[in-house]
Amino acid sequence: MEQKKVRRWNTWDNPWLNTKFLIGISIVILVVLFGLLGRIFWNVELAYVGSSPLNLPPVWQGGVPEHPLGTESNGRDMLAQLIVAIPSSFKVGLIAASVGMTAGLVLGSLAGYFGGWVDAVIRTLADAVVTIPTLAVLIVIAAFFTMRDTTSMALILAMFAWPGPTRIVRSQVLSLRERGYIRMAVLSGERPFGLMFREMLPNMLPWIAASITGNISGAILGATSLEALGLGPTRVPSLGTIINQAQTSSALIRGMVWWWFPPILVLMIIFTSFFLITTGLDEIANPRLRGLNK
Amino acid sequence: MSTINTENLILDAPTDAKKVLEVENLRVQYDTPRGAVRAADDVSFYLKEKEILGLVGESGCGKTTTAMAILQMVQSPGRIVGGQIRINGRNIVGIPESELRKYRWTELSLIPQGAMNSLNPVIKIKEQMADAIRAHENIKKKDLKPRILKLFNDVGLPERVYNMYPHELSGGMKQRVCIAMSIVLNPSVIIADEPTSALDVVVQRVVAQTILEVKERLGVSMIMIGHDMGLQAQMVDRVAVMYAGRLVEIGPVMKMFKNPTHPYTQLLIEAIPSIKEKKPLKVTEGLTHDLRNTPEGCIYQFRCEHVEDSCCNEPPRMYQVGIDHFVSCRHAAERARSMELLGGYHG
Lengths: 294, 347
What we know:
The complex is a heterodimer of chains A (about 290) and B (about 350).
Chain A: H1 19-41, H2 78-114, H3 116-131, H4 134-144, H5 150-158, H6 163-176, H7 180-187, H8 192-200, H9 205-228, H10 239-248, H11 257-285
Helix pairs in contact in A: 1-2, 1-11, 2-3, 2-5, 2-6, 2-9, 3-6, 9-10, 9-11, 10-11
Chain B: E1 19-32, E2 35-48, E3 52-56, H1 63-70, E4 78-87, E5 90-91, H2 97-103, E6 108-111, H3 125-134, H4 141-155, H5 171-182, E7 189-193, H6 201-218, E8 221-225, H7 229-235, E9 238-243, E10 246-252, H8 253-258, H9 263-270, H10 309-313, E11 319-322, E12 325-327, H11 330-341
Parallel strand pairs in B: 3-8, 3-9, 6-7, 7-8
Antiparallel strand pairs in B: 1-2, 1-4, 4-5, 9-10, 10-12, 11-12
Helix pairs in contact in B: 4-5, 5-6
């Protein structure tokens, strides 16, 4: 049964060769590589307080080549700080988004499939959590817990990341379970968990893929805001902590652009590339957005 | 030769054939704020071994509801309010879901209406077939493929379908996949819910032939739902005619077409256009009553040509008028009896 694969009318019509998606994903990969490979090429010990001379400007503003991006008022090398901060921010985002998403998928499927009191309990909880202003509660929680590492921070963020996915998955499952093929699967003896995670879940993949990137950038944003307010783990440098320290040391007034601007630039790059990935995935999953009808 | 016993309402098969499925006084209703809709009311029939029973009637007469009730898949707000459904002698109404799983697909399977919606678009055909098998049997991985390919062979599908997604198949192929799915576990009864209604006539013929072949090979009994009287005439052994949630006549297909007894059956058969003679088509006149408000007496009284006062007072029972032939009309039963007395009925 060897058939020659039919060539598309344009080699570049492969949906995965979506410009937005490719640009977005390559920027994310570059940023992650910068964080991961930076450790090999640069001494991350320089991220500790007092490891370098104070207040050096970057090399193009008359600094020294030993500290190309300059140093700040506590004697930390900016390049080393960024190298350490980027992976930890990504870690927070990934953990918070995947925990929240997994919880959302499980709870939403249970609520949608079983209905009745299971649905009532899950729906009420999710609706209640959605109405709570997240940042305010996070600040209160962060004030009570001294967060030692980024993982506990990610888990606290995940506590508020599940209601969104739960509600959407629930509505999807409600619609999916009335489809003919789900009823056929019920008839053919598939068990409820098989129905939920083998039959229904793959149908939600485009949505899951598109929303997980949004959730990651949301979690990074949440973590950064807490850190910028000084509520994050202070031992490990992270993008938010750098902003916080720059703020408390009046870097803005002192004209130390090289202190407060790099973390903001990195965040902007991360959010833009995640946005590109989300829209790109949307176009990949939905041919109409790709403009194939033109 | 059967005797006509108008007092006898027990549907006893006079033949020795084994009854694989018996439906007795099945009642399904849909509860609505403005009263319960009686979608299946006092439906009783039996299905003999290796028999195809056609279930016909106009839209909304309760064909699909009856079939779904047999599969115990009536959707809320519908529910089975009474009656028994026996498969090989065992009642399945009201048994728990876990018990039911043992019957579904192994004893009772479905060829669905509209195959395009009955296959999961994101799962390969081989996986969907395998799922149905694995839900009931512990089968080794290496035995799975030959078994599925054999099923494909049975329904005339090429082997390449094994590795395909549903969107890569045509409508007729999808319907054949559904037929293959319905026979994976060798059930004793298959319910085919308008299996050919969404296909063009050429594919319809092929699919109908496939169903017949499969039925012959496996020796299963089938219930064929449909409103295509022509297709029914070619495929089924017996026809059951439903009207407004009730069974009005059930009998051998040749007899029913040659000599319909119930006025509604007569109307249905006269409404089939003939290619041999040119005659004005008989149009079914009148409207079905609101199913929430079933009249006393015969349910067909508003559309019947021969309606009498007695029809409006007392509901008719199922009267036996021949071998495997029952009608729910007093006058029709009497007419049939007089014809038999004249010796002209069992021709």
